[in-house]
């Protein structure tokens, strides 16, 4: 594997020329806040070395909790206080409309590079004509499955959630009978946080139950298909999924999976490269596919994710910060992240890059997953999205815990969302 600067240096020259108008007379220390899973922080510190060498600036990374819900709450506190200590925020794809007023409009600084990225991702980061953040990488979850175990028990990869439930139970039972008492059928993210919104949206949407709040602002969540989806998910807890799954986030699920103790896992692309490390118990024993559907021959649904880079309006080092995020969003850096961390590029041409095709063939596979991605309802709910999501994942979590039925909890949720909406979002 090449060092990051071998991918990055040539590209940096182009980026630095394009950014020549963004020049600072002295070296700056740029502080970036970022959530992290796996080796994200270590890789970021490595990636940025060529930029530091070329500019004389330095990057300090301030790690955040892995929970996106906790990150967002802290971001809002800092930004509401006009905190000038943080220059660059790594932001979730859903946060642009909610935080737009606190970030620099990047439109005039990115005209030379913006057309390289998927238009839908640029659109997601644009609020009232203002480009709030530059794409760093995109994301959509998939179903990870142990191909060795499916072959062992002559099972096909499941295309519906019902098939997954049955296959997971059968293989779990047989593996335990063979002596692996720690084997589980399916691990996912069931904690009461934004990750559960992502999981549950996939269940509901794939059952034909809508997207919580539709594009026109109508509240759709209280329906029979959504109820059916949540009832099936509840049946997993303590059956094919450990009871503790209701406290799992991404790394908890990966921990069980990567020690070889799960047949299926729902997770994001980052887990692919980690699962195939030389030290991994399951190296070369798994594959990925689109998430199952709730109906026979029905559509899959994968929640659209992705992370972006925004410059704080309160930063006193805006020029150096803009130079940094242009560097991090560049083709060379996205290529390195794809090769090293199986991160999905937002630059369209990289899906045809020969190095990526050879070293990370799953990236091409993930394009099919990405094309079926479903956005969370942040666009119709605007600044109220965080409250909408919080009420949704709380209702789902209560249902999975057995605190009220799916019917009861979705009826209450509908009422709460109608109150939150008022006359309009």
Describe what you observe in this structure:
With 425 residues, this protein is of the alpha/beta class. The chain contains 19 helices and 13 strands. The strands form four sheets. It has a five-stranded mixed beta sheet. Strands 8-9-7-10 form a four-stranded mixed beta sheet, sandwiched between helices. A hairpin with a 2-residue loop joins strand 4 and strand 5. Helix 1 (4-18) runs antiparallel to helix 14, helix 9 packs across helix 10 and helix 9 packs across helix 18 (385-401). It is globular. 51% of the residues are buried.
Write a short abstract of this structure.
This protein is α/β, with parallel strands linked by helices and 425 residues long.
Q: Rg from C-alpha positions?
A: 22 Å
State which percent range the strand residues make up.
Answer: 5-15%
Q: Give the integer mean of the pLDDT values.
A: 92
Separation of termini? 49 Å
Strand order within the widest beta sheet: 2-1-3-12-6
Question: What structural category arises from helix and sheet content?
Answer: alpha/beta
Per DSSP E runs of 2 or more residues, the count of β-strands stands at 13
Sum up the overall morphology in one term.
globular
Characterize the biggest β-sheet.
Answer: 5 strands, mixed
Number of helices: 19
Uncertain regions: pLDDT < 50 for 5+ in a row?
12-22
Helical fraction equals: 40-55%
